[in-house]
């Protein structure tokens, strides 16, 4: 691995976090896979040797639980979903070089070999631990068969992860007040012997690794807290039948399977190996990429880039690098952790059918490339993205149709109709060449900054220039007045369209292939590098067609109506139960005499009779933040521009605090932030969140203890 700018002379592997083979994909899931595909294609455009791989995560208790409910074996259940994913990703132009799964022969063999090596090198030991046990059903309960209370933050948590609170990985036996998710019975803790990977031995290495790690800041910063708190060794076995058997030493009998997060990341290696087995090591050498010292040309291994959701940062920046270091494999060069996708400002809910399903999007007749553009360029990669049909319509109609599509269609149509009657031009003007070169530079910088959004922006900005260029030069007037000038303008516009086809290919691959054919370029746009964007156009123009279709307002209304009807139908039986659970308060009727500095009861608004469900409350993403900087906004009497550290990122938030607080004293103040508040522009400043305060005096809500920024408020 190098830390040189891309492209490097070492092979690169881009991976995406493995989807659980456990249910339908919705557009929230697609963000990571589209992001990975865009980045892999962008590396290809730079001339970087790249393999883009992933696979289905077949093991783990969610698969076993749902297979049992479906009345089929876990293998049958998982394979069905694996095949669905393998068919779905290409329909969104997500083109993995290899898409395997964790239960195939390759991954089973590679996993057993790597774990055996960990064991033989002394990084694995046995330990007696307390494992949840259902005394009524007489069975041990691995991770996801248990729910209870997180011992760190007190939130409701799964047996292996505090998914609703602090996001920590939880070891067997840590969860408090355990309950069986199978029977609902209270669970007991019984002693069992399990295998542990000594992650704590790698604390110093991991600190250095995070200093070297590239990618998104949330992946670089979030794991440091876990190291500072002291790393715990990692239980890598489970009491269940579905999974890869622990590869004990010769003659050793181990009646355990490997924890799913052991074999899941190893699939990255296995999938790359399968790619090499299919195309040959001369095309891509998996060992040169993954094994230190395997190649004389690349002794430090290749460039490993993981594209993941932010909920699995810990696995990819703590456990996985430690495993790789312990077995002389290449450490990741970068981890790109995406934010979540919300739907109309609220979280996706599969149980309430509150989602835009991947299959549904295509069935509604939409092309995949506009969704790819929306997911890739709507905010920074680590920021949350909100999807609504209104926002989708606006970005498609304004940016894809109105900017990119409008320029390409109008310029190519004019060229198609007039080029044969004008003098031949072989070179692109200096002004246009310089502007295309600027777009290439911006594209290259975006890749090296791991900015998916900037990859798209480089092309859209070039298209804006193209629209200004053709409008300013008005070739339709020059055809008769100055044919040579008209010919140059037409040539320049086709050159810009060609550059757009090259640079926009990672975002909209199918559309750009169509644009490439309209220009009359030879070969496939998927096979060229960014240098082709500067090559003068050649070949016969085809009659162009519109690249993108407008989304009519009535379609948005129709789609919203369908979504609302689905959600209402799914919620009919659930709302009453949820609200009943929240309705039983502990009001003992006691009244107290108010102090002088407390508003009297007549000054306080009555409590609303309108109740919300627990699920609705869960959709509020409330975080602890720390104000880094504060400054008044010119022209606004009340508003202050804050930069607030939310742990995973720093946001700009506008708050009405200027008259009520000394602005200079606000930095370092802990505040509570509604993080998934819709963005708003106030006095020219985009506000990305809301700071919570009490009363007319804006008494800022804060924390009693020293809670870390980014901690979720429950």
UniProtKB/TrEMBL annotation:
Short motif 'HIGH' region, span: 19-29
UniProt binding sites for Zn(2+): 150, 153, 162, 166
InterPro entries per record: aa-tRNA-synth_I_CS (IPR001412), Anticodon_Met (IPR041872), Met-tRNA-synth_bsu_C (IPR004495), Met-tRNA_ligase_1 (IPR023458), Met-tRNA_synth (IPR014758), Methionyl/Leucyl_tRNA_Synth (IPR015413), MetRS_core (IPR033911), MetRS_Zn (IPR029038)
Domain of life of the native organism: Archaea
A single Gene Ontology CC term: cytosol
Compartments, record wording: Cytoplasm
Location of the region described as Disordered in the Swiss-Prot/TrEMBL record: 569-608
Enzyme class: ligase
E.C. number(s) listed in UniProt: 6.1.1.10
Keywords: Aminoacyl-tRNA synthetase, ATP-binding, Cytoplasm, Ligase, Metal-binding, Nucleotide-binding, Protein biosynthesis, RNA-binding, tRNA-binding, Zinc
Gene Ontology molecular functions: ATP binding; metal ion binding; methionine-tRNA ligase activity; tRNA binding
Biological process annotations from GO: methionyl-tRNA aminoacylation
Necessary cofactors: Zn(2+)
Catalytic activity: tRNA(Met) + L-methionine + ATP = L-methionyl-tRNA(Met) + AMP + diphosphate
Note describing how the cofactor binds: Binds 1 zinc ion per subunit.
UniProt binding sites for ATP: 350
Function noted in UniProt: Is required not only for elongation of protein synthesis but also for the initiation of all mRNA translation through initiator tRNA(fMet) aminoacylation.
HAMAP family xref list: Met_tRNA_synth_type1
Classification via NCBIfam families: metG, PRK00133.1
Oligomeric form and interacting partners: Homodimer.
Family designation: Belongs to the class-I aminoacyl-tRNA synthetase family. MetG type 1 subfamily.
PANTHER family on file: METHIONINE--TRNA LIGASE (PTHR45765), METHIONINE--TRNA LIGASE, CYTOPLASMIC (PTHR45765:SF1)
Protein name, entry field: Methionine--tRNA ligase
Lineage: Archaea, Methanobacteriati, Methanobacteriota, Stenosarchaea group, Halobacteria
């Amino acid at each position: 691995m190098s830390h040189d700018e891309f492209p490097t002379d070492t092979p690169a592997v881009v991976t995406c976090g493995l989807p659980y083979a456990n249910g339908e994909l919705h557009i929230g899931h697609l963000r990571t896979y589209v992001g990975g595909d865009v980045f892999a294609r962008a590396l290809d455009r730079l001339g970087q040797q790249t393999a883009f791989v992933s696979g289905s995560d077949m093991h783990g208790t969610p698969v076993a639980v749902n297979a049992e409910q479906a009345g089929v074996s876990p293998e049958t259940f998982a394979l069905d979903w694996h095949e669905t994913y393998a068919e779905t990703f290409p329909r969104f132009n997500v083109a993995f070089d290899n898409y395997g799964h964790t239960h195939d022969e390759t991954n089973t063999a590679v996993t057993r070999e790597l774990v055996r090596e960990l064991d033989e090198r002394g990084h694995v030991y046995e330990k007696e631990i307390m494992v949840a046990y259902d005394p009524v059903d007489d069975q041990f309960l691995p991770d996801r068969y248990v729910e209870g209370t997180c011992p760190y933050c007190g939130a409701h948590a799964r047996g292996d992860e505090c998914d609703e609170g602090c996001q920590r990985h939880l070891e067997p036996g840590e969860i408090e007040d355990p309950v069986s998710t199978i029977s609902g019975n209270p669970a007991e803790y019984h002693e069992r012997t399990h295998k542990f990977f000594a992650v704590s031995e790698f604390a110093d290495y991991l600190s250095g690794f995070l200093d070297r790690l590239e990618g998104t800041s949330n992946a670089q910063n979030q794991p440091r807290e876990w190291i500072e708190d002291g790393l715990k060794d990692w239980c890598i076995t489970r009491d269940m039948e579905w999974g890869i058997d622990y590869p004990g030493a010769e003659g050793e009998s181990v009646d355990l399977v490997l924890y799913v997060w052991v074999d899941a990341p190893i699939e990255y290696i296995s999938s790359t190996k399968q790619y090499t087995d299919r195309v040959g090591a001369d095309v891509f050498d998996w060992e040169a990429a993954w094994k230190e010292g395997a190649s004389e040309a690349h002794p430090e291994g290749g460039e490993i880039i993981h594209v993941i959701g932010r909920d699995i940062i810990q696995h990819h920046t703590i456990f996985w690098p430690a495993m790789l270091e312990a077995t002389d494999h290449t450490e990741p060069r970068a981890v790109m952790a995406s934010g979540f996708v919300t739907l109309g400002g609220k979280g996706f809910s599969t149980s309430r059918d509150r989602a835009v399903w991947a299959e549904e999007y295509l069935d509604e007749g939409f092309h995949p490339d506009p969704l790819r553009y929306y997911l890739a360029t709507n905010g920074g990669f680590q920021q949350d993205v909100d999807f609504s049909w209104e926002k989708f319509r606006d970005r498609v109609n304004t940016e894809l149709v109105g900017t990119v599509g409008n320029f390409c269609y109008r310029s190519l149509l004019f060229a198609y109709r007039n080029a044969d009657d004008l003098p031949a031009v072989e070179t692109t003007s200096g002004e246009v060449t310089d502007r295309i070169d600027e777009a290439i530079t911006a594209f290259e910088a975006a890749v090296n900054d791991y900015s998916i959004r900037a990859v798209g922006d480089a092309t859209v900005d070039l298209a804006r220039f193209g629209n200004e260029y053709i409008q300013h030069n008005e070739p339709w007037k020059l055809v008769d007045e100055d044919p040579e000038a008209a010919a140059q303008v037409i040539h320049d516009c086709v050159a810009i369209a060609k550059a757009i086809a090259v640079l926009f290919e990672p975002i909209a691959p199918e559309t750009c292939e169509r644009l490439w054919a309209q220009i009359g370029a030879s070969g496939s746009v998927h096979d060229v590098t960014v240098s082709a964007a500067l090559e003068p156009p050649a070949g016969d123009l085809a009659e162009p067609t519109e690249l993108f279709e407008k989304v009519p307002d009535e379609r948005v209304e129709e789609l919203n109506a369908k979504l609302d009807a689905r959600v209402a139908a799914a919620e009919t039986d659930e709302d009453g139960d949820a609200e009943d659970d929240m309705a039983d308060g502990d009001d003992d009727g006691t009244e107290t005499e108010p102090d002088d500095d407390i508003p009297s009861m007549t000054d306080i608004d009555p409590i609303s009779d309108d109740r919300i469900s627990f699920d609705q409350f869960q959709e509020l993403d409330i975080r602890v933040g720390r104000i880094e900087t504060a400054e008044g906004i010119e022209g606004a009497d009340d508003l202050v521009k804050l930069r607030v550290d939310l742990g995973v990122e720093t946001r700009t938030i506008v708050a009405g605090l200027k008259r009520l607080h000394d602005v200079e004293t606000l930095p370092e103040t802990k505040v509570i932030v509604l993080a998934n508040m819709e963005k708003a522009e106030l006095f020219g400043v985009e506000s990305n969140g809301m700071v919570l305060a009490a009363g007319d005096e804006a008494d800022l809500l804060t924390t009693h203890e020293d809670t870390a920024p980014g901690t979720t408020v429950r």
